[in-house]
Amino acid sequence: MPRLNRNLHVALHVLAMLVAAWGLGGAPTALAPWACIATHGLGAFTHKAETNASSDTEFLAIVRVSLGIVACLIAAGQHWVTGTTGPEFVVIAMASLLLEAARPQKG
Question: Whole domain around residue 91: which residue ranges?
Fold first, then answer.
């Protein structure tokens, strides 16, 4: 998968956070929007740590992927099990994992 430019990568994460935050209006008590905000927030804000040559980027990647998987499970559960939210949050959560695959290289 091609690697994205760092600024574009951050912008896509922030856009996904804004879309998830907008979705809170329709379901303010749902966890799926919050999980999406958390996973994309972590994806955007760990870029700063990755520019440090001594940072453990593999650990950060494990945390980001783990949170992305949890966000997908929460969004899927709230959509298909409880019917609280729509499928858009599943897509937003999955987008964090796709963005992880296209994450710029360290440096």
Answer: 6-101
